[in-house]
Amino acid sequence: VMSADYEFWKDRARSLYIITIVSLIFLVLLGVASGQDRISFDLGIINVQPAELAKFTTLLMLAAFLAEERSEEVSYARFLGGLIIVGIPSVLVIIQPDLGSASVIVSIAMGVLLVAGAKIRYIFLISFLSIATVGAALLGNLVNSYQEARIIALINPAAAGADETYQADNAMRALGTGGVWGKGWLQGPLTNDGDIPVMWADFPFAAVGEQFGLVGCAAVLALIGICLVRIWRIAHLSRDLLGTYVCAGVFVMLLWQTFQNVGMTLKIMPVTGLPLPFISYGGSGLVVYFAMFGLVQSVHMRRMR
Predict the structure, then answer these.
(1) Class of residue 6 by CB neighbours under 10 A (exposed 0-12, middle 13-18, buried 19+)
(2) How far is CA 184 from the centre of its chain?
(3) What are the tens digits of pLDDT across the range 14-37?
(4) Between the CA of residue 29 and those of 19, 155, 224, 262, what are the distances in Å?
(5) By three-state DSSP, how is residue 96 classified?
(6) Would you give the distance in Å from CA 229 to the centre of its chain?
(7) Which of 50, 107, 172, 230 is the most buried (most CB within 10 A)?
(8) Would you give the distance in Å from CA 237 to the centre of its chain?
(9) String of DSSP letters for 163-207
(10) Residue 39 and residue 22: Cα distance in Å, rounded?
(11) What DSSP letter does each residue of 13-47 carry, written as one string?
């Protein structure tokens, strides 16, 4: 049963999506014109990062587009349309370049399509196209040398220089030296003396581990796990496809960003700069997560209608 608010959300999703695409194109053109990488608009007192907004608007647009079909399986035509919806912002974000945010957009698409009933071969096709796009970006020199170095550092640490592994090495040390109970609030030498650059955004999990130990890390992951369970339950309680697809996208986004951020602290994933949801310092990313959770709460609130 489709919600009475479907047409409203569909119109809003389309408008927000178009605004996001225009802002991404404008940002890419600014970067090309200035000869520098640009991932955000400097508005003086705040910086706005369109790639973060693209996660929100792409999810809304894709969910509204797939919900329109009202079937248990995604048709090939509908899949191609969804691929275009996801592909445009993904390519623009990769060009910036911001591989981390692009991976989130692709993971959202995979989660929503799976829940919508897409065939497994469609998911494999998205995976192949994503890898091919990143490969083309590497060959076309659209990706910075430091991003290439981060990938090399993960695959072959011996071939990477000390500068490329400096942050990840110190983050791993901080996490390991925290022990079970940690060293206490603001008592971690590695995380409080500036030995981990951009710790507040990229490696907050290392700070949690050094200061609060294994117990603190487990508490953070448990809270995120509770959020995931609740989102999953709300998706099942939703009375319409739009609400279910939105919840599926938020679920995958939260799961993937948590895995990626914790994984790069543990040196099992490349350093991409993806924030740890609700823990990392950040403006655009935090606003987007609040908006995402607001949508999930809205789905839950209207489950009895």
Answers:
(1) middle
(2) 30
(3) 899 999 999 889 888 877 655 566
(4) 15, 33, 37, 33
(5) coil
(6) 18
(7) 50
(8) 25
(9) HHHHHHHHHHHHHHHTTTT-S-TT--HHHHTT-STTHHHH-HHHH
(10) 14
(11) HHHHHHHHHHHHHHHHHHHHHHTS---SEE-SS-E
Find tokens 């999930």 and name the residue. Answer: 296
What's the rounded Cα separation, in Å, for the pair 140 and 171?
32
Q: Provide the token pair at 249.
A: 């996208």
pLDDT value for 260: 92
Residues 6+ apart with CB under 8 A from 155: none
Q: By the 8 A CB rule, do 50 and 23 touch? A: yes
Average pLDDT over all residues of the chain: 83
Map residue 5 onto helix, strand or coil: coil
Strand partners, 42: 47
191, 211 Cβ separation under 8 angstroms: yes
In 10 A of CB 35, how many CB atoms?
6
Using the structure block, give the residue that is written with the tokens 């996208």.
249
Structure tokens at 247: 């919840």
